[in-house]
Amino acid sequence: MHLTRKVNDAVLCVRNLKTCFFTKKGEVAAVDDVSFDLERGEILCIIGESGSGKTATALSILRLIEKPGAIVSGSILFNGTDITKLSEKEMRDLRGNKISMIFQDASSSLNPVLRIGEQITESLVQHLKLGKKQARERAVELLASTGIPQPEERFDEYPHQFSGGMKQRVIIAMALSCNPEVLIADEPTTALDVTVQAQILDIFKELKNSTSILYITHDLGVVSEIADRIIVMYAGKFLESGDAKEVLINPKHPYTQGLVNCLPSGKSKGKLVSIQGSIPDLIDLPGGCVFCPRCPDAMEICRKEMPSEARISDKHSVRCHLYGSA
Ligand code: SF4
Known about the structure:
Blueprint: E1 10-23, E2 26-39, E3 43-47, H1 54-61, E4 69-78, E5 81-82, H2 88-94, E6 99-102, H3 116-128, H4 132-145, H5 151-154, H6 164-175, E7 182-186, H7 194-207, E8 212-217, H8 220-226, E9 229-234, E10 237-243, H9 244-249, H10 254-261, E11 309-313, E12 316-319
Parallel strand pairs: 3-8, 3-9, 6-7, 7-8
Antiparallel strand pairs: 1-2, 1-4, 4-5, 9-10, 10-12, 11-12
Helix pairs in contact: 3-4, 4-6
This protein binds iron/sulfur cluster (SF4).
């Protein structure tokens, strides 16, 4: 299905993933039939508003969805192995090792009473079984690689001695400690000022030479800076996907068009415009197209049927009745 290519090129292949939360009010599909490949050495951005299902997609990949949630169907192939079938012990070996994640507001999760160095070496000892001296050398190397000056000295400092941007670099160093093949980053620059954000984005651009990155954000400005490819999600569903340049220059879905128009370079020319309305309640989704209540181009059929995928080009797909199906 959408955004899938030759399996051999991909380190991660998500197929028809459905993740639901079983609440007292009813079943909520936080991720509904989503498929994509993450190719080696690329940055794939998942973009969407809060409630679009992007974080639930990331947590599903790491099997970190907690009750009352669960992966209901679909597969997640990591180097060909379906990780939905792995035991909890096998998942623990994978997490933070082969697949690593930077969580939202991760810098606040640093332990305030542990030195920075100890926090980095923990997973080096646990996953890579390094000795104390080797782990220290590797941690210093990682701090240096994320642009932390005087890493030898800073290894022995505590989190409160680091600025917000420096803490974020430490978090990235920790996520990279075991040379993960896949790095998932959930809004990693949201709390940072613009200058520091640009420095952190530069780190991600360099990182893709050694790891594949799934980058989750609501910020299309960030996407335009770093993405090779894009998936646009809304109310748990995929709406548009493709090569980043192509989607940003020629967005097809009315929702993506609205997002792009909000960019300083978009049609609104920097004026503050927003897409009318808000994301629907997942427990009470509209019949037909999920974007229909907010769509300026809605037609009669949109109220009745959720559109299937239409292929715009080899690298570009969309779910909208304005285009034919694949
Ligand atoms: Fe708008 Fe219809 Fe396309 Fe949905 S399917 S985005 S309502 S035109």
